UniProtKB/TrEMBL annotation:
Gene Ontology molecular function, alphabetical: DNA-binding transcription factor activity; transcription cis-regulatory region binding
PROSITE patterns in the cross-refs: HTH_TETR_2
DNA-binding region(s) from the entry: 34-53
Alphabetized InterPro entries for the sequence: Homeodomain-like_sf, HTH-type_TetR-like_transc_reg, HTH_TetR, TetR_C_31
HTH tetR-type domain residues: 11-71
Pfam families: TetR_C_31, TetR_N
Keywords: DNA-binding
Keyword Transport: no
This protein's name: TetR family transcriptional regulator
Signal peptide residue numbers: none
Protein species of origin: Amycolatopsis azurea DSM 43854
Length: 197
């Protein structure tokens, strides 16, 4: 991080750029995060991206971390609601899928596209070695939250079982995407519900 981001104005501008980059990442994947696009989305001069970030890699890393932390925070909030309201299998499956596939979009086509983009991003991190340390940290936090979701839902799972359930969801989604299934989330939900029944 550059020294320019240590002032209140600098911190605010840096945060605006990260927010813009995170939204572009979610909408269009890694290729969408470019200096010009981020600056335009944030409503800031093009030079601000290189002023507040030493490289595009640093900006992408900050965007990935920001996006993931938002999703984890949303998941924790939903878990608190789940623990006080509905603890059925369907509610558990919905929350787990929100954490693994992202939030459900109201339109079926938009949801399928968002899931596809998410998996493209996840696979794309393998081609970006600079993201690997962050992805290990975020993955550990996600698995910790998933453990808590299952435990509070009355279906505690150990590490091996959680890994199997996540692989089951990933397999169902990838298979649905290959078959051009318009509802990859529904395919994953069926598999996960069957596994938890």
């Amino acid at each position: 991080m550059t020294a320019a981001a240590t002032t209140p104005k600098g911190e605010r501008r840096r945060a605006e750029l990260i927010e813009a980059a995170a939204s572009l990442l979610a909408e269009g994947g890694f290729d969408a995060v470019r200096h010009r696009a981020v600056a335009e989305r944030a409503g800031l001069p093009l030079a601000s991206t290189t002023y507040y970030f030493d490289s595009l890699e640093e900006l992408v890393t900050a965007a990935v971390e920001h996006h993931a932390n938002q999703e984890l925070e949303t998941g924790r909030t939903k878990l608190d609601e789940l623990a006080t309201r509905n603890r059925g299998v369907e509610a558990t499956v919905d929350l787990v899928l929100d954490m693994l596939l992202g939030p459900l979009r109201p339109d079926r086509e938009a949801d399928a596209e968002a899931v596809l983009l998410r998996y493209e991003r996840l696979v794309g991190t393998g081609r970006r070695p600079y993201l690997r340390p962050l992805m290990r940290t975020l993955s550990a936090q996600l698995y910790e939250l998933l453990h808590e979701i299952f435990a509070r839902s009355g279906t505690p799972v150990d590490a091996a079982e959680l890994e199997r359930l996540v692989a089951l969801v990933d397999g169902a989604v990838v298979n649905a995407l290959i078959e051009v299934d318009p509802e990859p989330r529904a395919a994953a939900a069926r598999m996960l519900q069957a596994a938890l029944a």
